[in-house]
Amino acid sequence: MLERLDKSQIFDSEKSYARVSLSWKIPWSVMAPLSLLLTATAIRLYEPAIGTEYRLQIFDRYQQLSPRVPTDVPISIVDIDEGSLARIGQWPWPRQQMADLVDELTALGAAAIVFDVLFSEPDRLSPARLAELLPAGATFDDARAKLRDLPDNDQAFASAISNSNVAIGFALTPDPGPRLPELKPRYATKGPAPDPYLLSFGGAITALPVLETSASGYGYLTHTVGTDEVIRRLPLFVRVGETVYPSLAAEALRIAQGASNHATKTTDPASGNTGRAGLINVRIGRLIVPTDPAG
Prior knowledge:
InterPro entries: CHASE2. It holds the Pfam family CHASE2. This is CHASE2 domain-containing protein. It comes from marine metagenome. The chain contains 10 helices and 11 strands. By secondary structure, it is α/β, with parallel strands linked by helices. The chain has one domain. The strands form 3 sheets. Strands 1, 2, 5 and 6 form a 4-stranded mixed beta sheet that branches. It has a 4-stranded mixed beta sheet with strand order 3-9-10-11, covered by helices on one side. Strands 4-7-8 form a 3-stranded mixed beta sheet. A hairpin with a 2-residue loop joins strand 10 (about 280-285) and strand 11. Helix 6 packs antiparallel against helix 7. The longest helix is centred in the N-terminal third of the chain and has 18 residues, at about 30-45. The radius of gyration is 31 Å and the shape is elongated.
């Protein structure tokens, strides 16, 4: 049975509820750390430029105080040093010299040979190119003909590359170029396509087509630097136009292991795995490399 209440009873009830509500307060011991936590979270999510700079300086300091412990790695660096320049001559060396270097490293059992040098122009020391520098006239016709009959340096380099596991590179540019680099490996994706999360570039300075086709691996060799000109990140993938390309480092790991492609794992907030959309890791052969959302 319903009981009818008069207005005075209703108002008294509301006043009692208001007194109870106002008497409940959050203790300062809880409020202070909670406020600090919320402030820190907001700063991290919407980080101002000065906050980013300060955080990176702290990161650099940690690296100086406790650097990574050196470990033995199966990598040898063939450096173009003063001794090499004195013995062989000024850089750039003839591509025939580079071909001989590839043949020798291959004979020594190199699993992968990586050139972090851009071979975008024909070798100016190729015999046919030297023939063009000779003065016009019958006096040099015989020498010109003999030079043109000699093997082309770029073709010799391409032949050596095709008989080994060699990775070469291309440079990224903000503006579109004459053509896009040849895409060597495809990549498989677990999750959404990684394209929207990657650093984007308009074009590239590519290697010579004859070298590009002969190489087993082909990746970008451009480094991205921070506002203070320090390299702290090495993206494994970038987007050039509408195509995703691997880095030269990723390609070196791939061909050294005899892998045919790369595999990316991505997520988005709807998946429930993380609050941030983007890449999680990249599988290169037997290696799984954790990444930030931009790869």
